[in-house]
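Hi R.,

Here's the chain you asked about this morning:
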Amino acid sequence: MRQARSGGRARRRVGAIFAIPLVLFLLGLTGLVGALLVDGPADVAFSLAAACGLVTFAVVRRPGRR
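And the predicted structure, written out as tokens:
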């Protein structure tokens, strides 16, 4: 049996595949820790950073997107 080829698609390295999820994880973790440790105006920025994963998920899963 013959194996299907990727049709010209370049193979992605592991670093390229996990780069964006890693950045989102680090941003969210920084936001969670910062929101717990800091009070005041900076708390809003840390809360937004903590919500970056939810915002990304909502954008990716929005209706009508293929």
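Residues 23 and 62 are 21 Å apart (CA to CA).

Let me know if you need anything else.
M.
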